[in-house]
Queue: 4 jobs
Job 1
Amino acid sequence: MKHKLIVLGAILALGTEVVFAQQKTIDQRVESLLKQMTLQEKIGQLNQYTGDNQATGPITINPNKEAEIKGGLIGSMLNIVGTKYTRQYQELAMQSRLKIPLLFGQDVIHGYKTTFPIPLAEAASWDLEAIELSARIAAQEASASGIHWVFAPMVDISRDPRWGRVMEGAGEDTYLGSKIAFARVKGFQGNLGDTNSVMACVKHFVGYGAAVGGRDYNSVDMSDRMLWETYLPPFKAALDAGVATFMNSFNDLNGVPATGNKFLQRDILKGKWNFKGFVVSDWGSIGEMVNHGNVKDSKEAAQLAITAGSDMDMESNSYRYNLAQLVQEGKVDIALIDDAVKRILRKKFELGLFEDPYKYSNPKREDKELNNPMHRKIARDIAAKSIVLLKNEKQLLPLSKDVKKIAFIGPLVKEHKQNMGFWSVELPEVDYDKYIVSQWEGLQNKVGKNTQLLYAKGCEIEGDNKDGFAEAVTVANQADIVIVSIGERRDMSGEAKSRSSIRIPGVQEELVQALQATGKPVVVLINAGRPLVFNKIADTAPAILYTWWLGTEAGNAIADVLFGDYNPSAKLPMTFPRDEGQLPIYYNHFNTGRPAPNETTTNYVSAYIDLKNSPKYPFGYGLSYTTFQYSDLKVTKNKITDSEKVEISFNLTNTGKYAGDEVVQLYLRDRVGSVVRPIIELKDFKKIHLNAGETMNIQFVIDKEKLSFYNEKLEWTTEPGEFDLMIGSSSSDIRLRSVIELLK
């Protein structure tokens, strides 16, 4: 009897509304609660604040924020991690009049305690199951630390690697980006409401990746057809996956800041797409509309943002201090505020926070999930899958485990935290120098007792000091093979990390040249968060692995690939330029009226007179330690109507001596359209594992959807005509071709 009374008391403490929870639908419960709320309490639900001192140690709650939480004037907090601290804040919310629980959000971009490869690197795996699993583990760890909501995935299409946030997305291609967006949302959200799932937040809506000059937060100017065909589809894919929330973007789109853009948020997202979740601003972006120059102060910014469909204000205080007055003055309809509040409350109900506001605050589960050895094992596998083999002359790789002396040289060899990449979560209680496997430690773990590892730093990441070159050359001369690890610092790619020059910093390329001059075979590891320009290395080094930033298990994964325990299979999700002068550069461009017929003809054609048009490495490119043969293409029919499908099959054979994975890619080209069409477009792909000598028959299906595009009237439609069908290993390595015709 005593136990029953305790349970009943706990229920009553959450508010009388909860007693009848099982008798009402969520919408009914939301409406019932809304009727009890004052205008200030409603506005409070639209208000999100950051926590204090989250990254550096114990949290001391700001007295003003404490009072506001107790007053029901804050709906969400971010940058508070750990069950101890989230519970501390939630207990304050339970002292408010209506006891509406807080939502805790966090930037969990590529892992929580277990850091996975940066998203652009994961995209290089072209492995949707692995990408979904990565997000699932991140959700399990984050939710175990009291987090309800992650500000991921970022699905912005970007064609300009000067923009630092390319590291956070899936690259330049709309089809690949849409598939990855869907997978990441599914991974994060699982069965929403389970304690091992979190709400996802797809961002940034929309066009952020097309910032002029690749400069972060800059303007975006594009046609409506480009918007619908290239930049919106990954967001629609996330919505189709059931994403709970959207985040708008910092940029203006065609002169209207996205935060205050009714066309994007009301007409498309909540109108045409019928999105039922809520929209959160990016950090301070509502108030920043004053800087854009389309409102004069934060009051006008609040009016524009709520009217346009921004439901929650992250850290600008524009709603907190202005909405009530705007309602009283008749400038904002209370129905707009009610709609935003209901969207937020609905998610809190779906998460089960009204039944148990502390359901995510279980220290035992936190300890279990954050120390799960299986997570590291999976992180190692995904990291290996993300490494791109760019060059391998004379089959220098994989290395023999019998090699006697290896010189491991470079400024990144013994680094730990650098491997985390940008936008990684740093928990104050974790010693990352011990937790993360450095590249040096990875090789130590791999080689046998008969192999000697030699080390020299050579140089710093930045600067022009070459004093370490002599030692590096001496060490290299003592070895049988040289591995050199160079690249960016992890904080050179990410938000607010735009670079006008995307060359390898400092004198690192010169270090590689000095090592090559020894005559020793050299393997180059390039660590970065974006495509870089490294022509001298690309042209002269015999073996190159693009290792991005791979996370917790970076060292072990790199060693797995170097010694052939994992055969590299990754393919580039972005085009690598020869020079910054080519930017933006992307594979699926239009042909123009004067296309260059070859790389040498430059007179009165669309070409540079001082540089080739072609990239250094094309979209979809990546080598393997084995070889694959494509053969016996069969197409069920060459002429179809738009109600019919074409089935395609071909044989894929592993003709080398190693088992391996091949990402087979299906491309199409619409030869003639009422609006010009790209010279080539990715329409499907499959990742296939084959043992040495094995053959598999691969099938694709082409239907109306794959042949459709947006016409001049922005109608998603097909047009009769011929289509080039192309199957290959990359966008520039087409192995099989055919032609199909769509009839009237």
Job 2
Amino acid sequence: MKPPSSVDGSTLPEALPDAAPAERASASVVAPAEGVAAPGGGTAEREPLAPEIAPASGSAWRARLGNPPRRPLLLGLAGSVMMVIGGYGAGGVLVRDPLLTNSPLGFWRYGHGRELATVLIYIGVALMLWAWVQLGRDVLARRVGGRAVLTIAMAWTVPVLFAPPLFTRDIFSYLAQGGLSLAGFDPYAVGPDAMPGIWTDNVHYFWQDTPAPYGPLFILLAKAVAWATGDNIIFGVVLMRLALLPGLLLLVWALPELTRRLGGRVPVALWIAVANPVMVIHMIGGGHNDLLVVGLLAAGSLVALRGKPAAGIALVTGAMAVKASAGVALPFLVLVWAARLPGTRTARIVKATAAGVGVFVVVFAACTFAAGVSLGWLPALSAPSMIVNWMSFPTGAGEFLHALIGLAAPTVPKQPFINVGRVIGAIVLVWIAVRQWLAARDGGPDAVHRAGIVLLAVAVLSPATLPWYVSWGMAILAMVAWSPRGLAWVVFCSLMLVIVYYPNGEDALYNWPYLAGCALVAALAAVSLLRPDPLRLAAGARSRKPREVVPITVPAAPAAAVPAAGAERRTG
């Protein structure tokens, strides 16, 4: 299988030079197939077969990079560098840093130095969010193409590859689990505290005695990183990030073609899935193994749609061998396979299911054998359920109901409410999954789209939810048609997902004044995506009519062309 070139103009469409003002004004915001419901509400139409509109000024190297707008690139890059610098004092720092401890720079880790580092991180987050919103405006107005979005995202990403863990300490758990396996322990039977040392010392206390809830492929990867780094934990953090980076590369490789198959726009999908602060800060800065999961999911889905369903199922099985949640996409790829077989629908699904199970067993067994572990992973899957927070909708509903009843009966225990909420959540999740699977029985891109819906439902309806879990479904849903209002919600939710944890990895989910303030900022950012200067702070803004985004009608395309999409323009 030969992947499309990452610099091919057909893969990441570029802009026409010096497009006419009328063309710029009539640029469409969404790129769906006709009659497809956009995630943010409303019905989206089919995108015209026209290239993205963007200025072609600049030097030759800037043109090869898509002529990325300088302001969001430099603003986000500055934010990224600030988070890296601040991370050495207020991120997921080492208990004993061999470089900073007892050095002239050691003040950065303690007292006022740590407070300054925390402020620097939050300024960096704000700058990156603002840069992302500005980039989003350019994407919606078709002033930039996919290559420019990718260039900017990569510029933001490179600095955080060398940062301490940001907003998490999970990467230390990964290294400890790899070290356990390397030392001959069963990571599915014991926690990091079974092997005291530098790896275990830096694991969050909550996970010290918890067996690994990850699949054999990830244990194999963590084992290799632990072997390569020895006791050098700083190198271990960087190498673990680099080892997970193929997930991002797979996502970027699959995204253009998969987006077109699912009815979306490549620049919009890249803006949501790759340039998103959740990707840069949590997935890469935090070093979460979900990055490998989303890459394998996207690549497997595309390969299956290209007519190689066995290879697609093998790739998604690999994703499941990292995190079990990816397995919910497998029944939908079976439907993609079934659509290519002869016979009745029932016979085709039975044949594809049997073949898919065969592929799954072979690939998963190979991963398990290579990692040198047992199926003890399955009982360890219950470990994340120890997390109790309201980001899981069922858990949050149980906590909310307990709080209401607690006003009248303060001694009522909370856990029964949480347990009942989780049972109801499981029932709702099964209903959603079955309903989506039945609706996708014709296979094709629709089956992949519905797999993304179920993956997102798994993230928010499971007993435990963490911010980066949302990436499972959004890696697919980013590639479908989005309405402008839906994209505004993406901005709001993305910022909230970034800041619900503190930079040092502790959660802020019950700091209500903090969350309320962040929600106001997130709402302002969401409105700013579609309405620049919503507070009308610019000079003379209060004496002018507010600028708005209003829909206009585009003249019908010739009979030989695809019908033109509904477009938007700004008036002021």
Job 3
Amino acid sequence: MMTQGNPDLVLKRRPFGSWLLGPADQSTRRLRFRLQLLMTTFSIGTNLIGALVVFILAVYVLPGPSLIDQLQLADAIIIPAYFVLAIAVGCVWSTRLTRRVTRWVELERPATRKEQIATLQLPLRLTLIEVLLWLVAAVVFTVMTVIMQPENALRVALTVIDGAIITCSVSYLLTEFALRPVAARALVDSPPPRRLLAAGLKARTVFFWAVGSAVPVAGLMLAAVLALIEGDVTSTRLSVVILALGIVALGNGWLLTMLSAKSVVAPVRSVRDALSLIGEGRLDVSIPVFDGTELGSLQAGFNRMAEGLRDRERIRDVFGRYVGPGVVQEALSSDRLGGEERYVAVLFVDLVGSTELAMNRPPTEVVQLLNRFFAIVVDEVDRQGGFVNKFAGDAALAIFGAPAELADPAGSALCAGRELARRLDEELPEAIAGIGVTAGIVVAGTVGDVRRHEYTVIGDPVNEAARLSELAKSAPGRLIASMAAVEEATPTESDHWLQSDLVTVRGRLLPTRLAVPDASP
């Protein structure tokens, strides 16, 4: 029950629709053994049942002179001898043909296009072997009947032919079922060849309707014809004939319909289970393509879709690493250039003495130090709901309030600044950095060309934060904010800050009232 309810387990344990066919990654040796066992069992079983049904119909059911009363010793020997011989010849012939067609599996290499077609046509070729053996049986037994019991020749011939049609149809479906793992390996790199799709689901449905319905009905009509020819068939005898043929018709129709339905349902169910996993966010899903009709194209189409989703998610992930998840969402929801005025808080952090670091350390050590430094920056900015807009050498610009809105952008930026200063001092003391925080109105949006976009913020607060980070490099706590940002923050955060000097930073005309963290416990 667990396997039926869990699509992941279903795809792993029954990738081909049945546990009889084994897992998708079974070894070549195990696949050969499983295939030989299934095909031999199916061949013997279907032909034995078919021969038994034909014998019962010809001897006991269809109207006419009794075959048992006229059965001779030669007949009793020839009939079972031919059956055993036909089974042996069929098994050996089928095995040799299967090994020759699927030799690429033993060589453990991909199938060529020609080998793909031959593999997908293998069930039909194997079935034709059985058709030939049944036709030989029809000829042999009809000739024997003509010689010994001419009045029963037509009954024997038509009964054997009907049995051949029904038996070979069931055998075809079972052979196609057993060969699913081999077909999956043949189609692992490409969908079914188009030349095989010509006789697809429509032709298969019509054929099995004819075999499952038309042939049994033809058998009933044959019984009526034979009854008319005999002329003296009692109503009781005729009723027995109709009931027996009706049972055979119902059983044969049910069996063919069930097997045909399973051959359709199995690939559809594999796609359904895989879609359930896709819906749960599992994009690492791939299903074996084991059908040579339009259903195989459906399975191959699902695999292409899943691969496209994986590529898209990979691009989205890489894109998000460069520009931030918020910008990715903005880019996916809007394809316009320009921006809008937003109230944001800006945090700018810049390493002290980066030139000396580059001169005195090997490049690999400098890169490792920068990566550790930026890891702390990104961690704290993300923790407070902001995003790092860009890395500029040894500096980073973080925005709070765009593209995703925040309830308290100033408070979030100030808190991020305090935690960042603390962590850098404790975790990375060799990386001394100045941190500047301010807030104000900026223009936030995408700029550039239709061929190349960049999300950015433009405005005086960006420049002011950069200048404050320069001042912070020589400040005791190496963290300075503007009083404007502190005043916009909620009391929970603003209580951690003290008002400081009024200075005019480089590049600005208006003075800025500074604020520093409260060092008191």
Job 4
Amino acid sequence: MPASRRSRSAVPSSLPALRPLALAVFALGALPVWAQTGAASEPAPAVRADAADGAAAPRPAQRSLDAVTVEGARESATTRLPLTARETPQSVTTVNREQIERQSLTSIDAVLRNVNGVAVSFYDTQRPLYFARGFQITDFQIDGLPAYSNNTNQEFDTALYERIDVVRGANGILTGVGTPSATVNLIRKRPQRQFAGSVSLSAGSRDFRRAELDLNVPLNADGSVRSRFVIAPQKRESFRDRYSEDKTAMLAVVEADVGSNTVVALGYQRQKNDPKAPIWGTIPRFALDGGKIDLPISTSFSPSWTRWSRESETVYATLEHQFNDDWSLRASVARTEGETFSLRTYGYGRTTLSPPFINRLTGAGMTLYGAVGGGSETQNAIDTYLSGKLHIGGRAHDVVLGISDYHTVGRTDGYTSLSGWRYDIPNIYTWNGYAPQPYYNKTGAWSEQTTDQTGLYASGRWRLTDALSLMTGVRLTNWERSTSNFNTAGRYVSTTGVQKVDRKSTPFVGLMYDVTPDASLYASYGRIFNPQNYRDASNNPLPPVTGSNAEIGIKGNLLDGRLTGNFAIYETKQDNFGVRDTSVPAGTLPDGSSAYRAVDGTRSYGFEAELAGFVTPRWRVSAGLTRTKVERNASDLIYANFPEYLLQLSTDYQLSGALAPLSVGGGLQWQTKIEGFNIPHPILGTVTVTDPPVAVLNLRATWKFNERLSATLNINNATNKKYWANLDYANYADPRNVMLTLRAKF
């Protein structure tokens, strides 16, 4: 019997290259400096409400480095300029710690479901999909460094983060490569000077169990050396048959003031997701007779031995230095190592080219086929930038100059093929999930895809008048990728897929005009590119996909600043997208691959409107409406569906009198119909299917026993609405679930 057969997980229990440093960080972060709890308290953090539900955000702990920080200003996720949401010439939403806890948003998936303008879909349980302005969101950052990975970092746990910023539009300045959709920047928690902590315990539907521990420990009397430790284990069963998940997220960081003007930090972050019986593939929509089959929401074609595990660890360090009142330097470095393993089954018909059509009477018609895979990924990221002010013409202008370098190596291990394994499910109505587990082995062969990207970037905010500011920015990017192939003896065989892009420029320009002290008009335009590994019929490489975003809008305050709002009209484009050239037979290029052609014409346009804040001191509201109309080339298939209109409503009300400890609220997410095209049908060949408009209601209530102890009840999809999350890659969305969280702060 091969050693790998019936193994609970093919992912090693550790990533040895990072462990020694991780343990050192953990040890420092966990030192019990209890005797220092009598140190002088810090002043209460200043708070400013910017345009987002719960966007009121505390400033960092006071120290010399923060002395010149503008109240409410943050580093922009697209330009690195110090801008408030009001000053940013793009649509911005911030989800802060208070909102994360109030709504019990334990994952980035839950967060993005509450962000205006973001459409959430997924292929299956381990492959969520997020779209903005008609394009998939691929730009995920942690503290401004790229973090998105197809293999290891898809399911971020919010316990490690202070806030999440989402900026819609193209982000070519900081990422260089990507799509013109949105940037999601997750800001890690940082150590503070005083001892503090919190612990929460959650329980919910389908044996959901979760705990969070957050400890802030100063390591000397004045807190100039300080640490923070966060850990969040979670387990849950599922409404899907046999599916369950075991995940853990952890953060340990030490931060120190070096003199009066320099702050350094060293941290370690880990996340492990280990699901059992994950969904891979789709749920049949039609029976063999051509009618809808309407299978139960619990339907799964994954036996209990299937796996799809991901594990990643990051060691990171930062240095911040304030030269004077105008100029500062920030340098960040991070190394991430991740590993994956998957043993999956997919439901087809008689062959892998035949969709499954179930016999309504006998339950026959579904055949399982298997796949196994695994590998690792290592990413080294460095980013250094200088930010400051230029005093020209009697005005202070903000400028940023930076350089970044990202080096990623993704290894794909070779496994014995499972093409000969199949299992015909006798009757899906009575099937108990049994299928014989296939045998597999690592072959010893592997491939390594290496990607290098270096960029020089600059941005500036030029104050032309008291009311008018011009934002400019540009990035020059060198990018290259290649794949090295090794045989079963470990010997190098070949290099394939060589791609290279030199000195590609991606510009950004924006205007902000303060019409009144409470209202500003803006306009912006940005570009981005994305290389593609395709060749045309003449064997010439296709040019990179180019994306752009243009928008105009207005931002402002209402009710003496208690409410903030914005409205934007946008147009987003993508050209040079590679699709199969069907005029040329498949596999006829010199290397045996198929010819592709570049198509233009993918375009989305529409508007975004958002309003958030307090109508009264006790009544908080948030409302967002988005329209996205997509015009896509007929050959440009993305296998995801999103509606033309999205509506997000949220409210919370703090009661008074005897019920003063109670706050109640809820949210409504409504979308117009979605359509799926070329869906297989047993009689008609392919058809267009439509899912009607959907409204999902979430409810919540919090009881504060005192300032340090509270209990929160969340009911998601309170009406237990059954609907499709995706039509082209059909799977059901989550049904009703309930979660109760007890949170204590000390």
